[in-house]
Amino acid sequence: MTELFKLTSVSEAWKAFRDNISLNGPAEEQVPVLDSLGRVLSRDIVSGVDVPGFTRSTMDGYAVRAADTFGASEAMPAMLEVSGEVMMGEEAGSCLEPGHAVKISTGGMLPEGADAVVMVEYTEELDSQTILVVRPVAPGENVVQKGEDISEGQVLVKVGTVIRPQEMGALAGIGITSCNVVRRPLVGILSTGDEVVAPDREPGPGQIRDINSYAISGLVAEAGGQAVNYGIIRDDFTRLEETVKKAVAETDIVVVSGGSSVGTRDVTSRVLDSIGKPGVLVHGVSVKPGKPTILGVVNNKPVLGLPGHPASAMVLADIFLVPLVRAMLGLGFTSPERRTVRAVIGRNMASTSGRLDYIRVALKGESGELRAEPVLGKSGLITTMVKADGVVIIPMAKEGIEAGEEIEVILF
User: Fold this and answer.
1) Which among 205, 193, 286, 175 has a CA at the least distance from the CA of 240?
2) For a pLDDT cut of 90, what percent of the chain falls above it?
3) Can you tell me the distance from the alpha carbon of 299 to that of 245, in angstroms, rounded to the nearest whole number?
4) pLDDT at 2 over 70
5) Mean pLDDT along residues 222-239
6) In whole angstroms, what is the distance from residue 410 CA to residue 412 CA?
7) Rounded to whole angstroms, what are the CA distances from 218 to 62, 221, 308?
8) Is CATH 1.10.1040.10 what the domain over 28-49+154-182 is classified as, yes or no?
9) Any idea what DSSP says for residue 320?
10) Fewest CB within 10 A of the end CB: N or C in the chain?
11) What are the domain boundaries of the chain?
């Protein structure tokens, strides 16, 4: 008789993982900045230039010496001689003399001697060579100083930053077109089961298309990793052993979908114990959906045996696989920051004490409040994840939530 797995809490499962994995320093690679979105920077970016590289105007108007405008008003304007114009994209001319002004456009370079810009709205043309200034400006007004945005020698973007569009723009602004980033962890993905066929095949009687490889590949990419698909493996010990060995040798994390329960044909745990040490660390996690889960380490490579049911596989991949990918990116064993909203649960939901329950919910506005309606269905139904906007986690110490209770929803 097959011995049933022993349920382990999520925190205990994580401890078993961390105690048996040694993470080496992340490998890096150089990529074009245009391809760097979402990548983790592996070296500080230090600016070699000032940005802007010259003092520039932020308004259309006239570059002036601020002192020449002090006390100016509509009743008693300051009179200045116009001694030229700064054209866009060109170097400013000679030094601005006291009592003079130079016409300038937004972004134009201030001439030497000028320290402010009078907006065109606060000037009047007396003739082609003279303007009246009807409002004073202070030194530095309507001006961006050289190096005010970014200064030479400044650490612009720190190591460990997940690059966003704004960082891409900042790098371009200092003339950097490629950067060093952490190499994406490779995640080998296998689906197991005699009943599983590729999505492009017509399932026969008793067969189903492979859902999990695609859903887990999406989670891996979203977390910053790169999925490597090893195909569908039948319920055969030798074939699965060969494929898992290959995946362990070629990738950083291995995920086996299916074959984690205690049925007589499930061989994943036996395979892990046969190919390396320490083998299976955890078989069974106190989470619903998803308790028949295997966590193991083979030759310092994490191996996860996820349930075959799609909703269960996605929940457990989010709990264990996503933080593993992030740890290999140098971001620590953490889940990514997710947006959350407060909502009112629409119905009673019971839970078993001593187990984490992940309740899929759909959100809807009703009577001026946000309501979270549980998306009911078995863990084998992928549509429960498609219909859901997020999840509510019922802690281990709680025995459920009551209709009308305010809860926090973690958005997908």
Assistant:
1) 193
2) 74
3) 10
4) no
5) 93
6) 7
7) 55, 5, 16
8) no
9) I
10) N
11) 10-25+184-328, 28-49+154-182, 56-144, 340-411
